[in-house]
Amino acid sequence: MLISGRGSNLQSIIDAIAAGRLDAWIAVVISNRAEAPGMVRAREAGIETLHLSPADYPDRDAYDRAIVDAVTARGVDLICLAGFMRLVGPPLLDAYSNRILNIHPSLLPAFPGVEAQRQALEYGVHVSGATVHLVTNELDGGPIVLQSAVPVLANDTVDTLSARILVEEHRIYPEAIALVLAGGWSLDGRRFVPAEPPR
Fold first, then answer.
1. Which of 39, 75, 118, 128 has the fewest Cβ atoms nearer than 10 Å?
2. Catalytic residue of the set 51, 104, 126, 133
3. pTM
């Protein structure tokens, strides 16, 4: 797990694993910010944490290579971004091609980037939501694994809409991780095709 902030999606994954809804284990939580509250959540759950400061590396590629080294050393199969406020570059994308997931608070491809909930309100959409997608070199542009729609209410603020979207983020992220880890899925162009359910 790569995080930068409070780690609420990290917590939803920790909880899903503890409840038996997700058959996985979190090898390490890496943050670019030493003071990220999510690091405390991870330590309280007994998960190894690692702070990698971008300031300690000459450029973005060197930083990404440090992440690759850290996760490879721990036998990581899948990298999950959860509020990781850095663009992922070629060293990480090449080493973990189609094995990096991200969660975004909109129905992509609508409203990529930061402040998606504010973008949705300002645009006047009636439906927004959450998307889990594979990470590519296009910002919030990778194949969509799962989405969940959330109505935008007439009296919504950024905070109220964000809170309702976050509920769906917490629900679908563990589901998407389970889908990807189960294997048997494929990509048809941009389309994520899950494995056929057992008969």
1. 75
2. 104
3. 0.95
| CA proximity to 137, closest of 166, 102, 107 | 102
Annotated catalytic, 104? Answer: yes
pLDDT digit string, tens, across residues 78-124: 999 999 999 999 999 999 999 999 999 999 999 999 999 999 999 99
156-180 per-position pLDDT tens digit = 999 999 999 999 999 999 999 999 9
